[in-house]
Amino acid sequence: MSKIQKPNDLGEQCMNVLRKAYDHSVTINQRVIHPDWLAAKAYERMDKGKRAPTLVRYAALLSLRKMAGVLCAGEEKKQEAAAELQKRYLVNRLGEQVYVLREEMTLEERHWKIANLRAESEAKAKHADALQAETDTLVMQGYFERETTGRERSIT
Predict the structure, then answer these.
(1) Nearest to 67 by CA among 38, 101, 27
(2) Which among 99, 80, 104, 81 has a CA at the least distance from the CA of 89?
(3) Is 83 left (phi over 0), alpha (psi -120 to 50) or beta?
(4) Is residue 31's pLDDT more than 80?
(5) Could you say which DSSP state residue 85 is in?
(6) Is the CB of residue 80 less than 8 Å from the CB of residue 100?
(7) Cα dihedral 99/11/79/105 (nearest 10)
(8) What is the pLDDT of residue 1?
């Protein structure tokens, strides 16, 4: 009897196949990385004989596209966190979001991305200010006094 794999294990396997396709596209210095392309490459590796029914293939590709988008966004976020220029940026091309080498970005795409990064930064700063204000109010109201258990109380 074969061991049934957990969905998380299968998801990891899918991400590993997508990562190989992503890494290959970086290795060959592909100018634009489209999550749809990554999904198609990963699917080709998974169903080499193209034996899956069309409906199954369609459903798998939809799932892989979503996972490819997460993978690409994760790579972008890693580089953002390092506060350095990224190798690729997410831009809109022909109504689709794709990851483009920085040196291949148009002036319009650069302006759009700069505005997008500033808007994200402003939104995060406002969120941090709101959380700080709530925390200050709760501290003043005594919500975070130590209980006999040594743990702090939460607001719920």
Answers:
(1) 38
(2) 99
(3) left
(4) yes
(5) -
(6) no
(7) 0
(8) 44
Q: What is the pLDDT of residues 117-127, one digit of tens each?
A: 999 999 999 99
Nearest to 105 by CA among 35, 20, 32: 32
Within 10 angstroms of residue 116's Cβ, the number of other Cβ atoms is: 14
Contacts of 69 (CB under 8 A, 6+ apart): 35, 97
Structure tokens at 67: 């996972």
Q: Please give the order of strands across the beta sheet that includes 32-33.
A: 32-33, 96-101, 88-93
In sequence order, the 6+-apart residues with CB closer than 8 A to the CB of 27 are none
CB within 8 A of 138, min separation 6: which ones? 144, 155
Q: 127-145: per-residue pLDDT in tens?
A: 999 999 999 999 999 888 7
